[in-house]
Amino acid sequence: MTRPLVKRIDMALHIQELCAVNNITVKYQSLHDETPRYVAYPSTRCITIRPTKNTGYYVSALHEIGHIIGTNQRGSVLTREIWAWVYARQNALVWTETAERIMQRAMGSYRWTQTEKQIWTEQSVTVEQKRLSICNYGWTQREIA
Ligand SMILES: [Zn+2]
Questions:
Q1: Burial class for 96, CB neighbours closer than 10 Å (0-12, 13-18, 19+)
Q2: Residues 56, 100: contact at Cβ < 8 Å?
Q3: Rounded Cα gap, residues 74 and 103, in angstroms
Q4: Cα separation of 3 and 132, whole Å?
Q5: Ligand 1 geometric centre to CA of 16 (Å)
Q6: pTM
Q7: Ligand 1 centroid to 137 CA: how many Å?
Q8: For residue range 9-59, what is the model confidence (pLDDT) as tens digits?
């Protein structure tokens, strides 16, 4: 199976666009800081992320955006975390093995349980459906033009 080639610039622009459209203020952490700091402040619609230079940084940024505009962001920490990842995967231009590994590691640090693992599995079905509808939409648009 081939996956679409998504360039770094596409990922960086995607994050900027999502933030602009959703009125989210982005603060970029310096790449000189050794410890990555990804934070979301829903009350002020502000996120701190690293510059989007690889897939890992990209999906982590999407995850923080998910804390601002994703669903189920008023529950327990584990609920908010898993749903911010669901948002990330649903909106990502591409979801790679690296992305999956980063998500697994992050949820592992929160000691996710069977409940969250089940949500992650169940929600992957809707991602496939969504990707399909995006493809169909693009095709229709081109047909019109
Ligand atoms: Zn989080």
A1: middle
A2: no
A3: 20
A4: 14
A5: 19
A6: 0.86
A7: 31
A8: 999 999 999 999 999 999 999 888 888 889 999 999 999 999 998 999 999
